[in-house]
Design brief:
By secondary structure, the chain is of the alpha/beta class. The protein is built from eleven helices and ten strands. It folds into two domains: about 190 residues, Spore Coat Polysaccharide Biosynthesis Protein SpsA, Chain A; about 80 residues, no CATH class. The strands form two sheets. It has an eight-stranded mixed β-sheet. A two-stranded antiparallel ribbon has the order 5-10. β1, α1 and β2 form a beta-alpha-beta unit.
């Protein structure tokens, strides 16, 4: 299976030789690698001298969704991986872990970041996220920083090219509405960007949660999922599906921090602090 890796960046001062070298030392060897950047890396000549990479250069300010759509369109892999240029794979098995779930035909994507610490750990390294899981904690889902996609799933639904804060979360939401799954995999995580300040992280988190309000359809999805849980309960003659729906829906009602108005900022900050952030408004 050929895997395309798209490294994306929108900064002018990056050196990517070490990252590209780490990608080419993965246990997955059949690779097609692209750099999707707004500024060529400072060590591009050295990269090209050692590794077969393609480069796509975009105008500064180009939405990430548009950059990735172009790169995906040029990819030759059945699976396409996106990796933020300031993230570094932890070990040679990063790609193996990230792409191992696609034998399941329902899996459209997998991600190694933004995982729910209540659901994923070294002891329980991955879980399959469905729409009900997503609605209970939408901030913990697919992230372009470190993710793998079935190319045919992207072909059916390309990424948003608006400048919204969470085109990755929007894509995940739409694909889950269609009945697919997204694998959240702890073992495919990377070393995180060391340059992001607490303030920058909080502002990104805040913007992301504000954006949820522009596309989440909680009541409509809830009614569909409720009917599905009832049908599953009758089919299997078991209350398991109904109990799971009720627990998740209770959590959804308690954690709706994507609400409109000023409470949004307070609740986003509260979630950030719980996740270990120290910066506050």
């Amino acid at each position: 299976m050929t895997v395309t890796v798209v490294v994306h960046a929108d900064r002018p001062d990056l050196r990517l030789f070490q990252l590209v070298a780490r990608i080419f030392t993965q246990t997955e060897r059949d690779l097609d690698v692209w750099l999707a950047v707004t500024h060529p890396p400072q060590d591009l000549a050295a990269i090209r001298a050692h590794y077969p990479v393609g480069v796509l250069e975009f105008a500064p300010g180009t939405p990430l969704g548009a950059m990735l759509n172009e790169a995906f369109g040029r990819s030759i892999g059945e699976v396409v991986v996106t990796l933020e240029a300031t993230w570094m794979p932890r070990n040679p098995d990063w790609l193996t872990h990230l792409t191992r779930h696609f034998l399941n035909s329902r899996v459209a994507a997998s991600t190694g970041t933004d995982y729910d610490p209540e659901r994923v750990s070294a002891q329980n390294p991955w879980y399959a996220q469905d729409l009900l899981d997503y609605l209970a904690a939408p901030q913990y889902s697919l992230s372009f920083a470190n993710a793998a996609f079935k190319r045919d799933a992207w072909e059916q639904r390309v990424f948003s090219t608006s400048d919204r804060a969470c085109a990755d979360k929007l894509w995940a939401y739409r694909i889950l509405q269609e009945g697919h799954l997204i694998l959240i995999d702890y073992e495919s995580r990377c070393h995180e960007n060391p340059d992001r300040s607490n303030e920058e992280a909080f502002r990104r988190f805040w913007a992301m949660n504000l954006a949820f309000d522009s596309f989440l359809q909680i009541q409509e999805d809830g009614r569909r999922l409720w009917r599905r849980a009832i049908a599953e309960t009758l089919r299997l003659e078991s209350l398991t599906a109904l109990v799971r729906f009720w627990k998740r829906w209770t959590s959804i009602k308690q954690r709706r921090f994507w609400q409109r108005n000023g409470i949004q900022a307070f609740l986003a900050r509260q979630q950030f602090v719980k996740a270990g952030g120290k910066w506050a408004l």
